[in-house]
Amino acid sequence: TTTTTTTKPTPAPTQAPSSSETPLVLVTMGSDSDLPVLKAGLDILREFGVPFALDITSAHRTPKYMMRVADEAAGKGIKVIIAAAGGAAHLPGMISSETPLPVIGVPVKATHLDGMDSLLSIVQMPRGVPTATVGINNSTNAALLAVRILGSFVPDYQEKMKRYQAEMEEQVIVKGGRLRE
Length: 181
Ligand code: RP5
Prior knowledge:
This protein is an alpha/beta fold. It is built from six helices and five strands, in the order βαβαβαβαβαα. It has helices spanning 35-47, 63-73, 91-98, 116-123, 139-151, 155-180; strands spanning 25-29, 52-56, 80-86, 103-108, 132-133. The protein has a five-stranded parallel beta sheet, sandwiched between helices. Residues 1-5 have low confidence and may be disordered.
């Protein structure tokens, strides 16, 4: 006889969980030297009340651990992965190769090449292994994109995103008005 095991998918939450709940976003980086660049993005996740987990998973220094983290993330309830790396920035792409989750890469300006090396390492993925890429050091946009993805199935996050966009628009219009005064 053969035994079949079925994996029960983690149901998508429909309400924004409190920050003490299971992380929905995994934010990982190639080195703790990337952390200052991620600070702005972490502030955004906190502002939107998105529970997140932080880790260091280096594609080159801890390849086995990185693959394990990528392999297990979906089963732990993670919905989006943000991965930051600089230089030969293989982390986002390698994680993307091992998980079915959306992965957002943050190219970190870490070397003498002004972050162009990181950007190109992350964005030039082969067909079949999509990895979203934000601008160099732009962890803010990585976090906002993660919130938008979550907002597709968590109405609370989508409502908060609409308010964020409305406030941003208002600020620009007010500043423009001041220039005309
Ligand atoms: C990458 O190398 C890291 O993501 C970091 O941006 C860069 C430099 O790392 P450290 O030498 O500061 O640890 O793997």
